[in-house]
């Protein structure tokens, strides 16, 4: 009897373990460590052109190298001039690597690494905004480096978002590949702080053909995916123009923007690593990977994703 029970238990585990392994798609410790490093006081809030911003560049470069991303033209660094009301930066930097796929058509994953710096003696560390997006970018890159995608995947850590989406603009003005080869932009900006376990995917109002791919993403134990924040009548709650994906949208390139709703730490000195939700955040980052994996397997054409806008 005991032998039969033992065999039944082993058989049950054999059925369950593959499913568990499939869901274990990222290293949560590394994810949190990346946020902690990028949002440290030593990074001085990562304002474009600052010493801390350059330190962040070095860290991102080292992580791209560790993961094994390929650079375009032998360098991850793509420089541009950034001029805004707040600051002029002669050499702002986007950091770009890629994983080649079977198809030259590309999904561009983006996350801005700059933040607002030091104001009146207080450091704005930007743990959620947007060290969390950059760390999730690393996690996605590490996953797809081990699980070869069908599409080419481009991973872009962008500068100058806080100064007018300038890094995304520079990426698209001088792209590493023809724009017509970009299937989709997946933008991550603020993924790590939400007490209700809710991560939003914005963009399906403009691109309803993307909705089925998002709706097929199963909830994680600590995070679920909701659609919304993309309708013009929502005013400030319409996120279409509020992060780097807007530059893609202006060029008729489909996008999905992943982010959380505003919280008390948004653009405050209190946006520190200590306030990251360490159970929600890894599951939220995993939901993004789940979506990219789902869409990548289906091989949609860009024409299928760009339907007539409402």
Write the layout of secondary structure elements.
Blueprint: H1 2-23, H2 28-38, H3 51-67, E1 70-71, E2 77-83, E3 88-99, E4 103-112, E5 117-119, E6 122-124, H4 127-146, E7 151-158, H5 166-173, E8 182-188, E9 198-202, H6 211-215, E10 224-227, H7 245-250, E11 255-259, H8 280-298, H9 302-305
Parallel strand pairs: 4-7, 4-8, 8-11, 9-10
Antiparallel strand pairs: 1-3, 2-3, 3-7, 5-6, 9-11
Structure description:
The chain has nine helices and eleven strands. With 310 residues, the protein is α/β, with parallel strands linked by helices. It has a single domain (27-305), classed as Aminopeptidase, CATH 3.40.630. Strands 1, 2, 3, 4, 7, 8, 9, 10 and 11 form a nine-stranded mixed β-sheet that branches. Strands 5-6 form a two-stranded antiparallel sheet. A hairpin with a 2-residue loop joins strand 5 and strand 6 (122-124). The protein starts with a helix and ends in a 5-residue tail after the last helix. The relative contact order is 0.16. Mean pLDDT is 92; it is low at 1-22.
